[in-house]
Design brief:
Elements lengths: L3 E2 L10 H7 L15 H21 L6 E4 L2 H10 L7 E5 L4 H11 L4 E5 L9 H7 L4 E5 L13 H10 L3 E5 L11 H4 L3 E5 L10 E5 L25 H19 L2 H19 L4 E2 L10 E5 L5 H10 L2 E2 L1 E2 L1 E4 L2 E4 L1 H5 L4 H5 L1 E5 L6 H21 L1
Parallel strand pairs: 1-11, 3-4, 3-5, 5-6, 6-7
Antiparallel strand pairs: 2-8, 7-8, 9-10, 10-15, 12-15, 13-14
Helix pairs in contact: 1-8, 2-8, 3-4, 9-13, 10-13
This protein binds pyridoxal-5'-phosphate.
The site of pyridoxal-5'-phosphate (PLP) has 14 residues, from α3.
Length: about 375
Amino acid sequence: MRRIYLDNNATTPVLPAVVDAMHPFWAERFGNASAVHSHGRAARSAVDDAREDLAALLNARASDITLTSGGTESDNHALFGILAPGQHLITTAIEHHAVLHAAQALEKQDIDVTYLHPNDQGLITPDSVRQAFRPNTTLVSVMLANNETGVLQPIQAIGILAHRRGALLHTDAVQAIGKIPVDLRELGADLVSISGHKMHAPQGIGALWTRKAVPLRPFHIGGPHERQRRAGTENVPGIVALGEAARQATLWIENDGPAKLTKLHASFETELLRRLPTSIIHGSGAPRLPNTTSIRFPGVDSEALVIALDLKGLAISGGSACTSGAVEPSHVLLAQGLSDTAARETVRISLSRLTTADDLKAALDLLDQTVHHLRSLA
Ligand SMILES: Cc1ncc(COP(=O)(O)O)c(C=O)c1O
């Protein structure tokens, strides 16, 4: 059976070039990057090169990048490393749990949190951010691209507002980096979270970029690694992989990859709506990532659809999350104003730069047949 993978917002396949780059660092180039002998120096130089490659992708300074274990750690570090008791955080109800649950934990440490709701297109308006400031607002945390809907938030405008009020802006850019060009000199954020496995590097590696003067406290305590910001022996194979994935992303962007993906994605959505005209794409009126479709098929339970499609070789994900054994509708879709039923009838289809027109043609046929079949059973 042919297998088609359209769940790239969950994780992306590691590129062959990334596997090749990482491979020697598991065995023959095994050194500890803190050691002074030649093994250590070779590992250190590979880490430095990888940091430079990631900096080049982001138009950033390598020295402002802290390498972490992934998006969750970077998000946690940004929040816990900036906020102190008595301060106020503005964030949103559509953040990933790495931010949302961190904010809830901070509330227990005497930090006030405002959770902004998006409009019906999934957008956090700068006006809603403006109204939420308080004299003790220290940090604003708004994601660049939402993992479920792909909606892109107006980070530049929010950054201007935050800076006028003397606050810092953190953005979780985990879903955006590697899919659209992101220039950190223009973005206007002060802290930016990055995850390797959303951009064709392995799981368990990521980064937190911090503008030079930002007073970030360390989150892991131990040795002096990562300029005292993140203690722990470096994951050299993972870091090398992240660097190579960044290099590949830079090449893909230079070769017009985002424009090609946008075209492929747009024609996929047009054809999907033509074949299944009662479907609704969430956030279709907002700027979105060129790879994500959050779509409701009225009358079709998303879990049943995901399972039926998986049996036919197509991997997508439901608009729900399994929390403590129960399937709960997505907090993102509910925050955007969808009913419980609408959220339970929504699936997420996410492409990558490896997705072909042929994959999408086969996926359209499977979606079309399976949605009609499930509706006929209802
Ligand atoms: C928007 C967003 N932030 C953070 C994360 C967490 O990243 P990681 O899996 O690298 O911890 C994810 C992963 O799904 C995500 O989509």
